[in-house]
Amino acid sequence: MKKMLVFLVVLCGLGPGLHSQDLVLRRGVVLDSLPVQDSVASHLRLYLPEDFDPSKTWPLLFICDDEGESLQAMRYLKRAADANGYVLAANRELHDTVSLASKVLKISSSLVSLLDMLPLDPERIYTAGYRDGGELALIYPALVPAVRGGLVIASRVPDIALSLEVKKFHIVGIMGKGDFQYHDLRNDEGILDKLKFPNHMIFHTGNGGWPTREDLDLGLQTLSLLAIRDKRTFGDSVDIARTYQAFTAYVQGLEDQGAYLLAHDQLQGAQALFEGIAETGPFREKEKAIRRSPGYKEKQKEWHAAIQKENTQRYEYFDYLDQDIAAFNLNNLGWWKYQADQINGMKGSTNLEERLLGHRLEGYLNALVDDYILREARAEQPDEDALIFLYMLKTLTAPLDFGNYLEVVSLTAKYGDFGTANFYLEELLRKGYQDAQRLYSLPHTALLRITPEYNQLIEKYLRAARYDME
Q: Quick one: 333 and 447 in the same domain?
């Protein structure tokens, strides 16, 4: 029943399209668009917490996303928004093809509309983003001091956010230790501390995907705690106690998983966050106890071994990939298959540090290959031999990413190599690909599609051959 409640906002004297409109908005439901004619507001997505009261002011978390996934992000964050009293919003018109300047203007106009429509706290306007959106989420407050901070998820801090001479803003990051950018964010954290940016990084034992709802909740609690420290909002004792308990549970969860190094690190961070606000003695005593434990010392050894192996493997990947691309060395795909198998073995290890290492190496290798693909695709005269090799490699390092098989089929068919094209077609179909229509419309495959071999494969796996196979 609570989610079906509505409230009425009477908008008077606002911008074009919003003047004197009665806008009915539902609480506790992610709205994909707003029922207004205004060119900006109509493209907004919005989430109001279940206990939203228009007589109070509310902090805003604006989600920066140019991959079309802001709706999913809002659904991930809605429980944390309810628990911490945040309004969520996003603009559906942000696209990866839009320039940075245009994105900043779109976000700015969105915030103006939201401030007109809703009782938002101007001292607590934040941006948030996941992966590439996280970098945009920190670029914006660096350019616009009125935005007080950012929450970044599975993303590092962009250089521009650190280089601009602006008023310091709050930064909270959430990242898995299995994310290939983990070391980068660790380095960013040290730089932020030296520059005296109020910040806290929440690390968990996952990889590069979305964190748990509990970690997202802790992220928003931390953002609120930084606002309390900066005297931008009143420090309610109940909210502070809730955040204190959340940090205690979070650290205990890390310890229970055997992540003693992360637990120790987060206890140090918690002391800095709560200094002068709550009693930090228990955190300090817990930190000492973990540091003295045999498990901590053992994990230190495992971590140093993992770092050494990671540095070696990253260097090999970078060096060998550059050579193989230059030589179009398809014979070395066997070596890359071995590396992919080794990574999968690490990911399945019972040893936590080895398992996280496997995820970091997988993420690094895929990001490295993607960078080469992007570079070649954007060249005036793309090297299609290089692209064939890179897409073949991606079928080994990301075997369930079907787009890479399709690219190999298309490019090899373009040069008449139907044997290779059909081999990758069958590999694709074995993995469960079902879109026969797309297979019969792939670029450069007109001659391939009328061959008996091609149609036999389509008939065998999809029962949908278009041409006579006899």
A: no
Q: Which residues make Cβ contacts (< 8 Å) with residue 346, sequence separation at least 6?
A: 354, 355, 357, 358, 361
Please check the confidence at residue 24 and state whether its pLDDT lies above 80. Answer: no
Looking at the structure, tell me whether residues 29 and 153 fall in a common domain.
yes
Same domain, 93 and 11: yes
Q: Is 414 helix (H, G, I), strand (E, B) or coil?
A: helix
Among the candidates 366, 399, 432, a domain finishes at 399
Half-sphere exposure of 229 (CA within 13 A, CB side): 21
Query: Do 459 and 395 sit in the same domain of this protein?
Result: no
Task: Quickly list DSSP for 109-139.
Answer: HHHHHHHHHS-EEEEEEEEEEETHHHHHHHH
Asked whether residue 15 carries a pLDDT value surpassing 50, the answer given is no
Domain interval for residue 117: 2-234
Dump pLDDT digits (tens) for 50-82: 999 999 999 999 999 877 788 899 999 999 999
Our separate counts of H helices and E strands in the chain read 17, 9
Q: Give dist(CA 405, CA 388) in Å, integer.
A: 10
Let me know: does 70 contact 63? Beta carbons within 8 Å.
yes
Rounded distance, CA 150 to CA 146, Å?
12
Report if residue 270 sits inside a domain. no
Answer yes or no: do 438 and 347 share one domain.
no
Same-domain check for residues 52 and 25: yes
Amino acid 13: pLDDT: 32
The answer to whether the CB of 22 falls within 8 A of the CB of 117 is no
- The H-or-E segment that residue 453 falls in is helix 452-462
Residue 153 lies in a domain: yes
Q: Are the C-beta atoms of residues 277 and 235 closer than 8 Å to each other?
A: yes
As a whole number, mean pLDDT of residues 29-33 equals 85
Q: How far apart are CA 390 and CA 411, in angstroms?
A: 12
**Which tokens hold the place of 58?**
């509310």
Own/partner pairs for 9-17, CB < 8 Å, 24+ apart?
9/54, 9/117, 9/118, 11/116, 11/117, 14/116, 14/117, 15/112, 15/113, 15/116, 17/41, 17/42
149 within 8 A of 141, measured Cβ to Cβ: yes
In a domain, 340, yes or no: yes
Examine the domain organization and report whether 141 and 27 are in the same domain: yes
SS3 for 470? coil
What is the percent of the chain with per-residue pLDDT over 90, rounded to a whole number?
72
